[in-house]
Every structure is written in structure tokens, then in C-alpha cells.
Specification:
10 helices, globular
């Protein structure tokens, strides 16, 4: 059971890091083109992980807003008991971690991207017949990803050891390692 908890925590952390990097690449490109939207990202970053996880639970849960809205159109959905977001694979926690950590990586990537020669890279790409997105994806993002090595490690460590998202949206069958460690800590007779 301990190996399954560690495996679940590591796999969710790796998948959330990959998803956050992918989403951060898209958001960074968009926000560098539209710099007035960066404030929306800062507001998203200020929402606590636990509040965001509760929002996801209340929206996507078995009795959540989405199911109730869909059940008004398809009544057979009202009786369906599905496990998301507290499923065996931790998909609810994965969704929250991807969305929250992509905002963190994006807000760190934007100032770092401004230190790179963006104008020269975009000009070189235009002369080569590439679009701005191709220039971002092929020329700029790999350089930027090297500058983000410390935040990437922080996101991985946080995703692996995060307790509040794991408690709210984590799996019921196999708990995340952080939840298992908390149970051991609170157990009056651990032996």
C-alpha cells in the first residue's frame, strides 16, 4: 500500500508538471502578445489551492453544478454515481495542480522571457517563413525552459507533497503519500 501511495504521488506530480509546462508555454506566448492580461494570472495565483480544489469539487463532483445542469437535459445522469474527482488515479488533484502550477510557471516565465532576445528571434523566424508560434515553440521556449529549472523543481516537489489538494480531491482507495504520512502522524498507536 505504501508503494502504491508513493507511485500515485510521483505519477500525479510528473503528470501535473508536464501539463503545467505545456499550459504555461501556451499562456506565456499569449500573455507576451497581450501584456494587459497578466493581472488575471496574478489573481488566479492568489487563490489558495484548497479553495480552488473545493471549487473543482463543487463544480465537477457527483452532486456538483455541472452534473445538475446536465441532468436537467439528460435525466439519466442524475442517477449516475461516478468517482471523479476522488477517483483511483487522482485526476481531480491532477486537474487542480495543472491549472494552479501553470499560472505559477507562467508568471515566472514572462519576466524571464523578456530577458531573452525576443525581437531578434521573432524577426529571424519571420525571415525564415515561420509563424510567431513556431518561433516561440522552437526558438524561445527551449531557452526559457532552461531558465525555469528551479521553478520546475519547486512545482514537482510541491505537487508530490501537497496535502490540501490530496485531502480534498485525492483518491479514496489509495491515498496520496502526503495523506498517508498525515495519518501516521496523527495515529495515537502507530505500531
Amino acid at each position: 500500500a505504501l508503494v502504491q501511495s508513493i507511485g500515485l504521488s510521483v505519477s500525479v506530480a510528473m503528470a501535473s508538471l508536464a501539463g503545467a509546462l505545456w499550459l504555461s508555454r501556451l499562456l506565456s506566448f499569449y500573455l507576451l502578445q497581450n501584456s494587459d492580461r497578466v493581472r488575471l494570472q496574478a489573481v488566479m495565483l492568489s487563490i489558495p489551492h484548497s479553495a480552488f480544489a473545493l471549487g473543482v469539487l463543487l463544480y465537477f463532483g457527483a452532486n456538483g453544478v455541472l452534473i445538475r445542469w446536465l441532468a436537467s437535459t439528460w435525466p439519466e445522469l442524475a442517477s449516475v454515481d461516478y468517482l471523479f474527482p476522488r477517483d483511483l488515479f487522482g485526476l481531480g488533484a491532477l486537474l487542480v495542480l495543472i491549472l494552479k502550477e501553470s499560472v505559477f510557471l507562467t508568471l515566472l516565465a514572462i519576466p524571464l522571457a523578456k530577458r531573452l532576445p525576443l525581437d531578434a528571434s521573432f524577426r529571424l523566424a519571420k525571415e525564415s517563413g515561420w509563424s510567431d508560434w513556431s518561433a516561440w515553440r522552437i526558438l524561445i521556449w527551449p531557452q526559457l525552459r532552461r531558465l525555469l529549472h528551479a521553478p520546475i523543481l519547486v512545482v514537482f516537489a510541491f505537487s508530490m507533497t501537497n496535502l490540501e489538494v490530496a485531502v480534498i480531491l485525492g483518491s479514496d482507495q489509495v491515498p496520496f503519500y502526503a495523506v498517508r504520512a498525515l495519518r501516521w502522524l496523527l495515529d495515537p498507536d502507530p505500531i
